[in-house]
Amino acid sequence: MLLGCAAAAGLALLPGCTSVAVSNLTPGSLPENPSEIYTFTLRVEKKSNLVTPSSVEPKVVVDGRSYAMRRSTIGEDLYEFEYQLPAGRQELAYYYLVDYRVEGSVANHSSEVFTDLMHTKIVRRYVLSLENARGPVGASVGVLGRGFTTQDVISFDGVPARTVYASPTSLSFFVPAVQPGRDYQVSLNGSGGNPPIGSFRVDPTGVTVSPSSLALRPGQTVSLTFSLTTAAPAGGLLLDVTTDVPESVIMAEVLVPGGATSVTIPVQGGKPGSGNLVLKGYGTDVAIPISVSGK
Predict the structure, then answer these.
(1) pLDDT above 70 for 11
(2) Does pLDDT of 222 surpass 90?
(3) In the beta sheet, which residues pair with residue 66?
(4) Deepest in the core among 29, 96, 237, 244, taking most CB within 10 A?
């Protein structure tokens, strides 16, 4: 006859059932993998010399079905079972059951211990890491993870960054024009959930612009050079240049190639008007006066 010892308060054993202690080592969430095979891991510790080592038989019961666990190669008291997840499942309900024999002074007897019912979720959208943990405004930074979509946007303390979708496992973004010299919390925002990514340090860097002002006629093109105090990081440095007279200015985005210290772009006059080109994200915004004359 089996003598049952239920686990109370998670995985703690009831008083008097101290011959064997069990500890669940399976995380409460498991990242999705292409094979859809997930490992249950259990530690079984013998608390009494009277327990027959060869009699210890751990099982994991998943959705009411029992599976024998095998001894792990990474630890003497560890047992594992690789479970093939049925199609469409997002969460698993399971508990552990351990049978064993105890040697007595008169006769041996069988016993068992089992845990409470537990749950593990399969996480199909997660972030593993940022390619870099710091950089200047405009730096291109990669994000590794799984479950990315074309609707995803990276943000810095809520400030959206220009985000580039590469694949379900890869994104990149350009550090937005936020105040340098401090840390920001980076998050992934999208319909699939908003997992936090971590902290990113925005470092200051210097930029000069030449010429310091522009005077154009409609259709006329001049060159504008942006120079950095240090070389642009790998992936390039995207400069956030805006204008308050968009109909008067025709220009492409300003991207300093990786390893370069400057870039020159053409600026063409549009409709007559006057205002400024504004470079953001470098401490005090840099303003370049621009005027387009009809004469």
Answers:
(1) no
(2) yes
(3) 61
(4) 237
In this structure, the answer to whether residues 25 and 99 fall within a common structural domain is yes
Q: How many CB atoms lie within 10 A of CB 66?
A: 9
Q: Is the C-alpha dihedral spanning 80, 81, 85, 91 positive or negative?
A: negative
Contacts of 222 (CB under 8 A, 6+ apart): 214, 216, 266, 267
Q: Using the 3D structure, point to which of 123, 141, 162 is the last residue of a domain.
A: 123
Strand order in the sheet with 78-84: 20-24, 37-46, 78-84, 70-71
What is the number of domains present in the chain?
3
Q: Do 28 and 107 lie in a common domain?
A: yes
For residues 289-294, give the mean pLDDT. Answer: 92
**How far apart, in whole angstroms, are the C-alpha atoms of residue 217 and residue 249?**
11
Of 110 and 1, more confident:
110
Give me 21's structure tokens: 């202690």
Shared domain check, 278 and 213: yes
* Spatial distance between the Cα atoms of 293 and 295, rounded to a whole number of angstroms: 5
Which tokens in the block code for residue 190?
């999208």
Q: What are phi and psi of 74, to 5 degrees?
A: -100, 0
Judged by DSSP in three states, 247 sits in helix
Tell me the pLDDT tens digit for each residue of 148-193. 999 999 999 999 999 999 998 899 999 998 988 999 999 998 876 6
Taking the model in full, what pTM does it have? 0.63
Provide the domain limits for residue 215. 207-292
CATH number of the domain at 148, please: 2.60.40.10
- What values do phi and psi take at 249, rounded to 5? -125, 130
Note if the bond before 196 is cis, omega within 30 degrees.
Answer: no
Alpha carbon distance 18, 102 (integer Å): 11
Residues β-bridged to residue 237: 139, 256
